[in-house]
Amino acid sequence: MSKQEQEDGPSEDRKKYEFRKVIEELQEYEGSGTQLVTIYVPEDKQISSVVAHVTQEHSEASNIKSKQTRTNVQDALKSIKDRLRYYETYPPENGMVLFSGAVDTGGGRSDMITRVLESPPEPVESFRYHCDSEFLTEPLENMLADKGLYGLIVLDRREANVGWLKGKRVVPVKSASSLVPGKQRKGGQSAQRFARLRLEAIDNFYQEVAEMANELFVPKRHEIDGILVGGPSPTKEEFEDGDYLHHELQEEILGLFDVAYTDESGLYDLVDNAEDALADAEIMKDKAEMEEFFENLYDGDLATYGFAQTRQNLNMGSVDRLLISEDLRSDVVTFECPNGHTDYEMVDSSDDTPDHACSECGESAEETDREDAIEHLMTLAEQRGTETKFISTDFEKGEQLYDAFGGVAGILRYSTGV
After folding, report:
1. Does the pLDDT value for residue 101 go beyond 60?
2. What global pTM score does this model have?
3. Which residues lie below 8 Å from residue 330, measured CB to CB, with a gap of 6+?
4. I need a labelling partner for 381 at 20 to 30 A (CA). Which of 76, 211, 267, 351 fits?
């Protein structure tokens, strides 16, 4: 851990990653029956009150018919009560979450585990006691979810799609097709009557699109960060000028943007074309990092990628920003050979240790350590003042970081030739 980190505590990126790891571990556990206990404790809840509640639940658990379930629930509650003794009047800042229970380990066996997560990324909103065959992690997952909620509308006079931009993810939700006739007059109708009917059909379609958007966005109107409207001219301008949307949504329109397509792909184009309006949105931050990485990769010499090359540059202190895919789930294995050389290799977390020949002398090397790859890289980054950026795979270049570059890359401070 760096000196600065010792003084200020772990970085926000590290804290979120460590929380995410624990959540993923907890999600893998299952219990036989309703015997896994989860307790969410807000920071203003007195510890003595929590202890009293746990004591009451322990007493009531004596009524559980199944002896095994009864024993496991009471053991879990006792373990939680023992952990609560380490706290004084109130929980830490933002509260805490306690998990305890007998988890299945296969072959009819189980192990008792207890985990305490202190100071989650956002405050625990209310006290909650939960007993089930799985631990309750959804509230914690929501805390780690990408921030930012934008409504998306793309339309022309033929079709429309609405959806969300949730953090970094575009989520198509609803679509509609119109019955607006083409501009050519048909069947001997007078030009004036045909034009009137066409305008009525356009108005009806705009109303249908607005109703579709209102149903989706109005319930979230107090959470939404803005609405983006895309399409060709003059369609999008007619839609906005006509005040078709609910009046509270109308005020949330951030801008109108030219979009060539109005099917689901148009929602993704809308996000791309609204880059300035979404400058603070998470997906645009990720896209900007990857755009800079690819520019340096193809037209400069300030990019590094792959575990070995990036780790070498980290050790040299030449990495300005470390780019790690959010989907990376790997370990770093340390190998030692008889001649005293040390190698590092990144492997899938679920894989056994591979055979390894020393990169310097070719001798067979033995595993001496194995640790989480992200923690390994982040520790190196923190020691050298390098910023770590987690990159989503919910856009094309984010996928490429994971698929083509092994989930690890970096933007350099200066050229190293490595």
Report:
1. yes
2. 0.72
3. 346, 347, 348, 349, 373, 374, 407
4. 351
